[in-house]
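Hello again, I could really use a second opinion on something today. Take your time with it, there's no hurry, and the full record follows here:

___
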Amino acid sequence: MKILLATQKPFSSVAVNQLKEIAGAEHELIILEKYRDASDLENAVKDVDAMIVRSDKVTAGVVNSATVLKIVVRAGAGYDNVDLQACSDRNIVVMNTPGQNSNAVAELSLGLMIYLARNTFSPGTGSELKGKKLGIHAYGNVGKLVAALAKGFGMEVSAFDPFVEDSILVEDGVSPLKSIDELYSVNDIISINIPAIPSTIKSINRNILNSLKKNVILINTARKEVIDETDLLSAMLQNPGIKYGTDVMPDCHEKMKEFGTRYFATPKKMGAETEEANVNAAVAALNQIIDFFKTGNERFRVNK
């Protein structure tokens, strides 16, 4: 079986070496790293049975270039970089690896909170996390870990997630909130962990942003598309206490830089950029592919 590891942003050498060991002599692991053009991916995918990607764009063009491809696994939770319909039309299974990068993303969230609370380590008086009210928008794998870490800092944690029962939040020592409006209006710091799907794209808009407290920190380690950037710029102009930290550089990055220490974006998405997360996601992706061909297991399938 031919398996393509297509990563413009390469996995760590430790992760790649583990993949080679797992593949062994039974499977041919083809590695395409740091490629510059979509045509490179289209050529590489032509005769492979399976493909592992990170943030690489699996477009209809890529899918249509494949002749025997049966499965694509996104090494990570989000899969908006994969054309699901194109894959479904060709009977190609698409999976993700939920939870494998979660701790790395959660730790980055806390790091961004500290960085902005301390005015990006610039001269001047900052603030501490202890005693602050943290609101978590979506209590999934990442949100749950953010809550646990935040409680270690002595923060008061609440969350809104219509898909999680209140009893689960209470058991974790997290206060359930009844609405998005409540989440954004009562907290000092907000951790955004929602996926980019039709119902969430630009859902954090003027109505929500205008309800923020005077001094609030927004942390986005999810997707840039969930925030209406025009409304965010307006809110930051109208409310000089808002700070925004993100692991997904917005399209309005140059304008946002004018806010100085009130804004920070990682130069390139860094949430999963730890050796541990690299290994976890890569190994999970390959094991899912092997299991799929061996047993037909489609547990983490995300397309129809």
